[in-house]
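Aim 2, interim progress: modelling of the pyridoxal-5'-phosphate-bound target.
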Amino acid sequence: MVNNTTVSQISSIMATYSRFPVTPVKGKGSYIWDDQGNQFLDFTSGIATCNLGHVPDVVKEKLAEQLENLWHCTNLYHIPNQEKLAGLLAANSCGDKVFFCNSGAEANEAAIKLARRYANKVKGSESSEVVTFSQSFHGRTLATLTATAQEKIQKGFAPLMPGFSYLPYNDFEALEVLKTKNPAAVLLELVQGEGGVIPADKEWAGKLAQVCKENGILLMVDEIQTGMGRTGTLFAYQQFGIEPDVISLAKGLGSGFPIGAIIAKEEAAKGFEPGSHGSTFGGNPLATAAGMATVTHLVESDVLKNANEMAVYLDEQFESLKDKFTVIKEYRGKGLLKGLVVETNASDIVQKAIAHNLLILTAGPNVVRILPPLTVTKDEIDEFVIKLEKALQGIEKGA
Ligand SMILES: Cc1ncc(COP(=O)(O)O)c(C=O)c1O
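Predicted structure of the complex, ligand included:
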């Protein structure tokens, strides 16, 4: 058996990740198994991607059916699954038109391109600027890392893309700045995931939406991490009393099969016309079969009801963990996108959790990010608490 050390020494993979010493080879529901046969409770969901758990039967069956028929065809032809998935997304959101791509960064790229083209071609505006917010995360392509207002993500990639500026998140005064700037669009997460599981203030988000509406600024919400039921509703914006002009999606949309999308309101969608944008793989028959099965299950089954009940149960557990372990300062988040703010290095806790067969994540240096599948059960949460308690044993404040 080749051990992990040997693998990393001989690896031909470019060193873009510091990997944890786990080699998953099989998954089902809330569990994965490694190449040694060890079972792990997976409360990462592939970073908010396997929202229906690993290898969900409803998606597996539709993918298997599609594998028999047609894997790929060009977007120059009609793709029935794509039509159906676009219709389903439009029917269950405030948007009207959908463009398909393959990842979150590509979805935000499409949103940024749409905003620029809408401003230039439809509105005839001088400004093509896109405003984003401090601690945001929007992806790793050149445009989306420029949109990401975090120095650590941008470092070394100068020159960055022109046409972006940043405002403080959850800051009411920033809304006044926005009025004078009058950009083409704002792009924001309603719960900042990578930035530390920071929910937007509901009143602030409402005022932001109002400023956008009154000034003809497109409101673009990055739901790549918060979407597909992760925060307790199909999309997070549904809990904020706002209606975005553009929504970007990926991660949970295909239950692990790569697919991204933007949904735009009819008016914003006028920014694109034949030839403005495209993608070879975007929305291909296999990817949209996975998307159709996933979204259908999310809207027709009681999985969201379960996610909301389990989110309440998880909060109760966090409340008692906070009393028991002084290293836990607070917990926050929405639905099953949770963050434990700790007064120590969060990655030490994540490392120790692995030793107890529990997979969790960090979100910045002091936040442990916890993302169970929406299908999680009470028993699995109880198991999580036992494992997390073991991982927290002996961890001192400020260690
Ligand atoms: C909010 C948000 N936007 C964009 C992205 C980028 O998505 P991808 O890694 O699929 O390009 C991520 C990924 O973590 C994300 O969380």
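Residues 70-300 form a domain with the Aspartate Aminotransferase; domain 2 fold (CATH 3.40.640.10). The chain is about 40% helix and 15% strand.
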